[in-house]
# Entry
Amino acid sequence: MNKRIKRVLSVLLAACVIVVAGWEVLYPSFIQTPGPKSLTYLLWKRGLYNLNLEVATGVMVGDSRRDKLVVGQTRAQLERRFGHLFSRAEATSYQQRCSLTSGWDKRDVLFIGTPAGWMVAFDQGTATDLVLLKPC
# Structure
């Protein structure tokens, strides 16, 4: 390899390291609750990092593009990403009450994790809505 190619590769590697280090400074990943722009969460969204489900569903609250993780997916696809999805019968009493009193009572719904407040509504086997169950 000639010197010029080595120099270009070195500069590119240094630039990548600087960008990743800068991103970590601005959006830290390895704190107790990372944000939606942290590298660990971004990698998890793309299936490249195994982020704790409780942390991931907590970070989803601040993610403006969280619907893209769920809407259009089948139950099997969602279970690969989120693990077991809870039916109304398996859900907490709070989740059951919210799903039955907030206009979702006639919809096929499943819940992501517990005690997470995420409900997924399905239409013909495909997720159509992701709902954050705030106080209801």
Q: What stands out?
A: Helices lie at 3-26, 39-45, 53-59, 67-70, 75-82, 93-101. The chain is about 45% helix and 15% strand.
